[in-house]
Amino acid sequence: MNGVRVMVVDDHPMWREGVARDLTEAGYQVVASCGEGRQAVRVVAAARPDVVVLDLQLPDISGVEVIRGLRAAQPEVRVLMLSASGEQQEVLDAVKAGATGYLLKSAAQAEFLAAVRRTAAGEPVFTPGLAGLVLGEYRRLAASGQRAPAEEVAPRLTERETEVLRLVAKGMSYKQIAERLALSHRTVQNHVQHTLGKLQLHNRVELTRYAIERGLDD
């Protein structure tokens, strides 16, 4: 993971230092470590991390406010929530604010490091059980509002990109999509990145919501 830049934001110094140490030993480049949300928002543009590992509960402002501030200062940044809370509304609020993934602090070290790697690659990562919660909420929102017809996607995306998008909307991982379509993992990643660019979206969570709103998960 050489070259992947990570910022750690958590108000517990020992936990923050431990996370930073684990990341460094795994080959990530820890470019900043912050104990408060406002500090993180101030330094993110200068630090330019690829991934921010962010605690939900901070002493000054909420994690949701931090996500919005981070995304405003550096729109391309990917945010992985690392929180002790798995409360459903907090998870949904974080994702709606722009978090790419949500992992509980009870996750094993290997699971956490893999989550950072996948977040850097643009994949949504959730503690088991939370991914279904997020997909369910997007489907509920889509069902209660005006959905654009799927045909509107076709002029902007290739047939293969649309096919990949349909599988993204079903909550499938890059590996599962690659196996389903007999493609390499890298090819699936490239299709997703091209689709994000065409649709002017920032991450796979936003892409999933876009696809569900257009009924592509049917």
From TrEMBL:
It comes from Micromonospora endophytica. The keyword Phosphoprotein applies. Pfam families: GerE, Response_reg. One of its GO terms (molecular function) is DNA binding. The lineage of its organism: Bacteria, Bacillati, Actinomycetota, Actinomycetes, Micromonosporales. GO terms for biological process: phosphorelay signal transduction system; regulation of DNA-templated transcription. Keywords: DNA-binding, Phosphoprotein. This is DNA-binding response regulator.
